[in-house]
């Protein structure tokens, strides 16, 4: 009799084990009610930009009612949705980085938690969302040259601005208060930006210009602008814009250009000269004349006032 009882007990234990195994396997094979999750990895609730809210996106396998919350470990720090009905398909929910009282939560990693009511399942998404409200700091700004001659001849056509950052971010160059676009595509802690003497795709005027930098981190936080760095754009520059000279007398004029040579015209005469001190002769007649000096499509002019020669 005892042997029969033992056999029955063993059979019952084996049956219970098989049933538990089957239940476990069934649960493993049960499809999740949500799929295709996509969570914004980092954002800044205080950046006043398009990254001030984190996007939580997924697909709902069947229409259901959802509770959506944000958790820090096991603690619920924000309830975004409660018992809200959603149809089958894409679901997009935004979180502003604040708790239920409207306060910005501390920097750190948080996770979305979805409770699917009809399915009776609560799913904490493994994708963390980081709150980052600290702006990057730009350091060690260096400008390669204070004079640039962007006339396309390959001689001092551009300059570089190099800098370091205290965290990975993307830098942007600002010329005369206008941003010229971001630097490299991926955030870095050190970078060099080239400037070719253009603003919004057009060459800037000759003369002084102010360069500044800003940096934007992956969360959207912007650094303060750096102090302005003055640089000069020069195509052809003359040392004087007005010259008084006796008729037929020689005179010298300082011509600054990065071109190998410049072309000059004065009183029906013309010629070529190397940049530097250019020596010319005034027209033989009294009057007002214009000296034109050009190089690589850029021109500068000076007024020449010719008087009667001394007797």
Your description of this structure?
By secondary structure, this protein is mostly beta strands. The protein folds into three domains: 31-131, Immunoglobulin-like; 138-233, Immunoglobulin-like (Sandwich), CATH 2.60.40; 237-307, Immunoglobulins (Immunoglobulin-like), CATH 2.60.40.10. It is 9% helix and 53% strand. The protein contains one helix and 26 strands. The chain has one helix at residues 2-29, and strands spanning 34-39, 42-43, 54-60, 64-72, 75-86, 89-95, 108-116, 121-124, 129-131, 138-143, 147-148, 159-175, 178-182, 188-195, 198-199, 202-203, 207-216, 229-233, 237-238, 242-246, 250-256, 262-266, 269-273, 276-281, 287-295, 298-307. Strand 7 and strand 8 form a beta hairpin. The termini are far apart. Mean pLDDT is 90; it is low at 18-28.
Low-confidence stretches: 18-28
Secondary-structure element series: HEEEEEEEEEEEEEEEEEEEEEEEEEE
Coarse shape: rod-shaped
H/I helix tally: 1
Structural class label:
mainly beta
Please tag this protein with its features:
rod-shaped; Immunoglobulin-like; 311 residues; mainly beta; 26 strands; 7-stranded mixed beta sheet
Write the layout of secondary structure elements.
Blueprint: H1 2-29, E1 34-39, E2 42-43, E3 54-60, E4 64-72, E5 75-86, E6 89-95, E7 108-116, E8 121-124, E9 129-131, E10 138-143, E11 147-148, E12 159-175, E13 178-182, E14 188-195, E15 198-199, E16 202-203, E17 207-216, E18 229-233, E19 237-238, E20 242-246, E21 250-256, E22 262-266, E23 269-273, E24 276-281, E25 287-295, E26 298-307
Parallel strand pairs: 2-9, 11-18, 20-26
Antiparallel strand pairs: 1-3, 3-6, 4-5, 4-7, 7-8, 7-9, 10-12, 12-13, 12-14, 12-17, 15-16, 17-18, 19-21, 21-24, 22-23, 22-25, 25-26
């Amino acid at each position: 009799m005892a042997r029969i009882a033992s056999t029955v007990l063993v059979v019952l234990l084996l049956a219970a084990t098989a049933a538990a195994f089957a239940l476990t396997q069934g649960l493993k094979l049960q499809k999740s009610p949500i799929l295709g999750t996509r969570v914004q990895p980092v954002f800044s609730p205080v950046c006043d930009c398009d990254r001030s809210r984190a996007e939580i996106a997924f697909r709902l396998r069947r229409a259901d009612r959802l509770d959506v919350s944000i958790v820090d470990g096991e603690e619920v720090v924000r309830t975004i949705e409660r018992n809200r009905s959603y149809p089958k398909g894409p679901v997009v929910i935004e979180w502003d980085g604040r708790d239920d009282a409207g306060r910005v939560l501390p920097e750190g990693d948080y996770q979305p938690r979805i409770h699917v009511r009809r399915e009776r399942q609560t799913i904490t998404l493994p994708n963390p969302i980081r709150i980052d409200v600290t702006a990057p700091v730009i350091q060690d700004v260096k400008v390669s040259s204070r004079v640039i001659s962007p006339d396309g001849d390959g001689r001092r056509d551009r300059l570089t601005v190099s800098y370091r950052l205290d965290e990975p971010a993307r830098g942007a160059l600002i010329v005369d208060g206008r941003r010229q676009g971001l630097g490299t595509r991926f955030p870095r802690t050190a970078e060099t930006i080239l400037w070719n003497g253009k603003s919004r795709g057009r060459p800037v005027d000759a003369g002084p210009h102010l360069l500044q930098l800003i940096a934007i981190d992956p969360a959207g936080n912007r650094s303060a602008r750096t102090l302005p760095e003055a640089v000069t754009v020069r195509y052809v520059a003359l040392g004087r814009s007005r010259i008084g000279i006796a008729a037929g007398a020689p005179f010298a004029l300082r011509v600054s250009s990065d071109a190998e040579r410049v072309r000059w015209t004065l009183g029906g005469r013309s010629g070529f000269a190397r940049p530097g001190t250019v020596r010319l002769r005034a027209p033989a007649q009294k009057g007002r004349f214009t000296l034109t000096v050009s190089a690589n499509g850029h021109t500068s002019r000076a007024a020449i006032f010719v008087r009667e020669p001394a007797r």
